[in-house]
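FW: tagging you since you asked about this chain on Friday. Here's the raw sequence from the shared folder, copied in full. Didn't touch anything.
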Amino acid sequence: MSTLTHVLPSIDYLLAHYNNSLEKYHDNPQLSSMLQVGLRKLEKYFNKTDSAPAYIAAVVLNPAWKWEYFQTRWTREQVIAARRRLKQYWETLYKDFREPRNQMPGDSPYAAGDRSDFDLWYQLDYVAVATGMNEYTQYCACSPEPDISDPRSYWMSGRSRTLFPNLSRMALDILSIPAMSAEPERLFSGQSRRLQQGVTVCVMKLLRR
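HL: got it, structure written out here
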């Protein structure tokens, strides 16, 4: 199932396709007119994503992309505005969240041969104190990891939850949101039809009695 991670990249791809097509078919008035209509509609929905920082967060919290995705595709002004919105979102909802860090049974925060709990805790605490960084800025300061194909698995790992307890909560909240509501709506509609059919069968049986 596609999640919010794919929304902005998909729009960026379509915007690039429309603009390239407009340049390619600029001498075709009829086709150019249709392309311009489609482009305006696409830009309308792209602008609507500004009201929800979760769309930006879904890309940045993909460890394979982070902010490098936007820095190579968006204008400097767009990136600055996006950084400001996401920083405010993080600081308002997640930065100071406090919850007992109970480890799930059988869930080890480090792989065999990796660093211990103490090493991970020390790194997180020492870096935060020495640099003044919080979880979000520490995560963004690290280079993207292009080999990671499943962002949710990355954030569900014990290692990520140990190093970034609040940021991992934010990531899993956002990366669990489907890109479209069509699939959940289809599921509920299907169950509703089944219930209606079941009620109809019961009523018919009662009437026959």
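FW: The two ends are 47 Å apart (CA to CA).
HL: agreed, and Residues 52-178 form one domain.
FW: great, closing this out.
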